[in-house]
Each structure stands twice: as structure tokens, then as C-alpha cells.
Design a protein that fits this description.
- This protein has 390 residues and is an alpha+beta fold.
- It is built from 9 helices and 16 strands.
- The chain has helices at 59-73, 78-81, 177-184, 190-207, 216-219, 237-247, 249-262, 299-312, 346-361, and strands at 26-35, 38-44, 48-52, 100-109, 115-124, 128-136, 139-146, 153-159, 166-172, 209-212, 269-274, 280-285, 291-293, 333-337, 365-371, 383-387.
- The strands form 3 sheets. An 8-stranded antiparallel beta sheet has the order 2-1-4-5-6-7-8-9, covered by helices on one side. Strands 10-14-15-3-16 form a 5-stranded parallel beta sheet, sandwiched between helices.
- The protein is elongated.
């Protein structure tokens, strides 16, 4: 099998089992081998991770790489995932012949132990996956490489342990082979079942990801009722509150308590009022007959409200493509929040930090955020702070 145009890193030795491993598949490491401003960077991921660094250190690009892997894990083609692939190529990267590209990867832990995925993407002369490797216990379970550059396929080989040690076939070069394995691997031999289990763990860990960046200017406006699923910009926060208040009184009361702790003035309830035109708007009930519309709240208060609701809700209330074929008890929702502390005052940051740490400790949600200066989060139990340097 031909070597990939953009070589993947060598397969590492297997790591010892982690104590207290969760059965819910989740990412424990994001690798930026050669991506945007990053080279040979490995970011450890805990239940609650803050990626900190000065402007230009690559915090946002790290989250974009995570989101890109998540979308690839959901089966999206490269052209949908990378709208501007040239921006992903490390600056000053020398082309291999006429080819340029980037490399990213991750590790997913779960019932199968640590499983690694590494992907090499070519951007020039055409966008395509030219190398992919899925490994576990130091063994390569799937490997793809570019064969004939004139064909839009890669040559794949996966572990078998049957009469032949590997099975070889062609796969399309615009999607992850890991996602396609269930359609190609029969699962008859122990080796094939191992490949399928590792691929499933990786896909489940990647698919339950929700990228969130609350936009206060849109949250101030009345919104029509619809699916009741929270959008990435939290534009429809009032509509989602209408739904969650009815469906789960306990979570709503927790949300009200969080809002009371992070917003100025008394708060006895957080409501969604239906207007004459059928739209709904958010209001804070002050308890004395006064109701403060979301339109009067500051950016920090609205971002705080949106992030608090996000941490207290579940995947069924979010606009994401979660693996419906996998029981919810086996899924972990991961929230990506760029600029987590943006517009928040010290009290709101502290309250959100505590709420996030408590919810992430339960294991049903994980949070990866960015912050310019994460000194306010250092030393908090359950929070991993990763520092980047330009």
C-alpha cells in the first residue's frame, strides 16, 4: 500500500489503563500535528477543559479542529467541513512535491480503552484525505493511504485475524474510513469485531459535540416557536426556555437558581412570554410584579443565561446530530465554547465555573472552552487548564 502524501505520526506504545475509566466514549486528547499555527501539539482533555493563551496562540483554531473531527465523525464530506482548507495548512509548510495539507487527530477512551485516530488531509492540488490510521493497544486496526492520485479513492487495510491478517479495499477519499467501517466489515472474526468496536467508540465520542457561541444581540429579540432545540448561537433561547420549563420542572428550578446567582437584582423566575404575533420573548420575573425583558439585559447577563441553560440541559434540547442508535446512557455530550469568559464579570465567571465543574463531574456532559487568561480557573477541582503559547 502506498505511503500517504502527508505522513502520519508513528503508532505509540499502548498506554496503561486509566483508573476509574468511564464507559461513556469521550475524547481525552486532541492532537494538532500540523494544523494552522500548531505543530506537534497534544492537548489533554478532562471533563472540563479550558484552553488558555494570548491572542494569536491558536485557541480558536484548536476548537475548530475539534469541531472538524466531530463533523467528520458524523459522516460529513471534507468540502462541508473545511470551507477554507488553505487556512488549516501550517504557515510556511513546505509542499511534498506539489502537495500541501495538514494533520489532526484525537484519542477516545471508553469500554475499548484508548483508541487513537490520526488523519492527514491534502489541500493542494485538491482536497482529499490521503492518510488515516485507527489504532488501539499499539496495533493498527485501520490504515488508509493514497494509491493512484488520479482516482478519488484511498487504499484501505483493516485488521482481520482470519485466514488473512488484513482485508484490503478501496474507500472514498472525502470521508473518514472509520465512519464507513460498519458498512464494509462483516464482524465475523475477533479481529473484525475489535475493529468495529474501536470505530464505534471513536464515532460515538465525536458525534455528540455541540459548538456554542451565544450571540446576545439575537437573544434580545422575540423568536418564533419551532423545534425547541437550542441553536449554536443561542438565538432561540426564549423558545428553548418555553420548552424546558414545561418538560422538566427540576432542571428549570436549577436554572432559575443559577440565574439568580449570576444576574443583578432579585430573580424569582425566568419565563418565556408568548406575544400576540405568536413569537416568544424571555423575561426575568423580579417577584414584585416587575418583569425585565431580555432586551434590557447586558451582553454578559445574556451569555451567562445561555451557558447556564446549556450546562443544565441535555442532548435532546440541542440542535446536534447525536448518534440516535446509541442509548443516551452511553453518550457523553461535549460542549465547545469559544471565549467562555467573554463579557462575564468575576461573579458570573465564578458561578459558571462552579456550575460547569459540578455538571461535568457527573459524567454526562464535558466542556471545552477557551479563555485569554484562565487564572480565575486555576486550581479548581475537576478543571483542566491547558496553556498555549504563540
Amino acid at each position: 500500500m502506498a505511503a500517504p502524501s502527508l505522513p502520519l505520526p508513528p503508532v505509540p506504545a499502548p498506554a496503561p489503563p486509566a483508573a476509574g475509566r468511564s464507559d461513556r466514549p469521550h475524547l481525552t486528547e486532541l492532537r494538532l500535528s500540523a494544523y494552522a499555527g500548531h505543530r506537534a501539539v497534544a492537548l489533554p482533555l478532562g471533563p472540563f477543559t479550558l484552553i488558555a493563551g494570548d491572542s494569536g496562540s491558536g485557541k480558536t483554531s484548536a476548537l475548530r479542529a475539534y469541531e472538524a473531527l466531530a463533523r467528520l465523525g458524523g459522516g460529513a464530506p471534507l468540502t462541508e467541513v473545511f470551507a477554507d482548507p488553505a487556512s488549516c495548512v501550517p504557515e510556511g509548510a513546505r509542499p511534498d512535491g506539489r502537495r500541501r495539507g495538514f494533520r489532526i487527530g484525537c484519542t477516545a477512551d471508553g469500554p475499548e480503552g484508548p483508541v487513537r485516530l490520526d488523519v492527514a488531509v491534502q489541500t493542494e492540488p485538491g482536497l482529499r484525505i490521503v492518510g488515516e490510521r485507527l489504532t488501539a493497544d499499539g496495533r493498527t486496526l485501520l490504515e488508509t493511504a493514497l494509491g493512484n492520485p488520479g482516482q478519488r479513492i484511498v487504499q484501505a487495510a483493516w485488521h482481520n485475524t482470519g485466514s488473512a491478517p488484513v482485508t484490503r479495499a478501496s474507500l472514498p477519499d472525502d470521508r473518514l474510513g472509520t465512519v464507513l467501517l460498519p458498512l464494509r466489515v462483516a464482524g465475523r472474526t475477533p479481529g473484525q469485531r475489535r475493529v468495529l468496536a474501536a470505530a464505534e467508540q471513536m464515532v460515538v465520542a465525536l458525534r455528540s459535540v455541540f459548538a456554542c457561541d451565544p450571540r446576545p444581540d439575537r437573544m434580545r429579540l422575540p423568536v418564533p416557536t419551532g423545534s425547541g432545540r437550542l441553536l449554536g448561537g443561542c438565538d432561540n433561547l426564549a423558545e428553548v426556555m418555553w420548552r424546558t420549563r414545561v418538560e422538566c420542572a427540576r432542571r428549570h428550578q436549577l436554572f432559575v437558581a443559577a440565574v439568580r446567582a449570576g444576574c443583578r437584582g432579585p430573580v424569582t423566575d425566568v419565563l418565556a412570554e408568548r406575544l400576540a404575533d405568536g413569537t416568544v420573548r424571555g423575561v426575568l420575573d423580579r417577584g414584585d410584579g416587575t418583569r425585565t425583558e431580555f432586551a434590557r439585559l447586558g451582553d454578559g447577563e445574556l451569555r451567562y443565561l445561555a451557558l447556564a441553560l446549556l450546562l443544565l440541559t441535555g442532548p435532546g434540547v440541542l440542535a446536534l446530530d447525536a448518534p440516535g442508535e446509541v442509548p443516551s446512557a452511553m453518550r457523553t455530550l461535549t460542549v465547545l465554547a469559544d471565549g467562555l469568559e467573554r463579557a462575564l464579570d468575576p461573579r458570573q465567571r465564578a458561578e459558571l465555573l462552579g456550575l460547569g465543574a459540578r455538571m461535568c463531574e457527573r459524567g454526562h456532559i464535558r466542556l471545552v472552552g477557551t479563555a485569554g487568561d484562565a487564572a480565575w480557573a486555576e486550581g479548581t477541582p475537576g478543571v483542566t487548564v491547558v496553556h498555549l503559547t504563540p
